[in-house]
Amino acid sequence: MSDTFSISREWREYITSKFDELCNSKGMTFADLKPSLVPENAGVYVIYKTGDSAMDPLYIGRTKNLRQRLYNNHLMGPLNNARLKNYLIKFGIVKNKDAAKKYIQDNCRVKWIFEDDYRKRGALEGYFTGMMFPTYIDEEH
Question: Is the pLDDT at 25 greater than 50, yes or no?
Fold first, then answer.
């Protein structure tokens, strides 16, 4: 019996193709984010700082509804369901919820990919987190 672990070539190709798809997709600034511009599809997303350097990921997440999560929660939502806002306040980047919203609007972009299967969303979120190592990572449950 072997103690090694391997993944199928098909899975490896799938997960790396999704990573490439995310990295190469066109990002949208939160300043331009309107509900009608964000699909209601399930997916995985990365929120990153704007600037002229390489993508600086702040947060990676998964959701059943991108519009709900990105617009209603991350941008417009209260602190209890907007983790990035909480992190910005907790680590002293901003002082309050309104300042966190303004920071996100002025300094952040978002990219996403679609994925309907919740197990694959979880695997992709974990893989993307390991590959990009975002500044703010959820604490273990």
Answer: yes
